[in-house]
Design goal:
This protein is mainly alpha-helical. The protein contains 4 helices and no strands. Helix content is 69%, strand content 0%. Helix 1 runs parallel beside helix 2 and helix 2 packs across helix 4. The radius of gyration is 30 Å and the shape is elongated.
C-alpha cells in the first residue's frame, strides 16, 4: 500500500499535470490563432502588392513571419506613399492643364495656390477658402474621376486571394 505521503504527492502531480494540459491547450489555441493571423496578413500583403503592381520582397510565403511581414508592410507603405505622391502631382498637373486648356487665367498666379484678399483678416480669408473648397467639391470630384484610371489600380475585393477563409464578418 501507498503511504499517505505518496498519495498526496501523486494527487499533487496529477493536479500539476492537469494544469499543464490546460496551459498547453491554451497555448495551442493561441498559436493556431497567430498562425491564422499570419496567413491572413501574408494574403493581404500579397493582394495589396498585386493590386498595386508592386513587386513583393523576395521572401517565400513560408519564410514570411514576424519581422519579414513587418519589412514587407514597411516596403509596401513606402512604395504606396511614393505612388500617392506621384498621383497627387499628376492630378495637380492635369488640373492645371484643364485650366490652361480653355480659360484665361495667369497660370503663374494659379500655381501659387489660393489668392488671399489683403483687405481681409486671416480668419476671413480662411472662411473664403473653405467656401471655395465647398463650392468646388462636386465639380472637383467629377474632374478627379476623369483621372482615376491614370493613378489607381483596378479594384479588387477584400480577401479575394484567400477564398474568403478566415475573413472578419463584421
Amino acid at each position: 500500500m501507498l503511504s499517505n505521503f505518496s498519495m498526496s504527492v501523486l494527487v499533487g502531480l496529477k493536479d500539476e499535470l492537469l494544469a499543464a494540459q490546460v496551459e498547453a491547450h491554451s497555448a495551442k489555441a493561441q498559436l493556431e490563432g497567430e498562425v491564422a493571423l499570419n496567413r491572413r496578413l501574408r494574403t493581404a500583403i500579397c493582394d495589396l502588392s498585386t493590386s498595386w503592381e508592386v513587386e513583393p520582397i523576395d521572401e517565400s510565403r513560408e519564410e514570411a513571419r514576424g519581422d519579414a511581414l513587418v519589412d514587407q508592410l514597411c516596403y509596401l507603405g513606402a512604395t504606396l506613399r511614393d505612388r500617392v505622391r506621384d498621383a497627387l502631382h499628376i492630378g495637380v498637373k492635369r488640373a492645371m492643364a484643364v485650366v490652361c486648356s480653355g480659360f484665361s487665367y495667369d497660370i503663374e498666379v494659379v500655381s501659387h495656390g489660393f489668392v488671399t484678399d489683403i483687405s481681409k483678416t486671416n480668419a476671413e480669408n480662411k472662411e473664403r477658402l473653405h467656401a471655395l473648397i465647398d463650392d468646388a467639391e462636386v465639380l472637383g470630384e467629377r474632374l478627379a474621376k476623369l483621372f482615376e484610371p491614370e493613378v489607381l489600380p483596378p479594384e479588387t475585393s477584400p480577401g479575394a486571394g484567400d477564398g474568403g477563409e478566415d475573413r472578419d464578418t463584421d
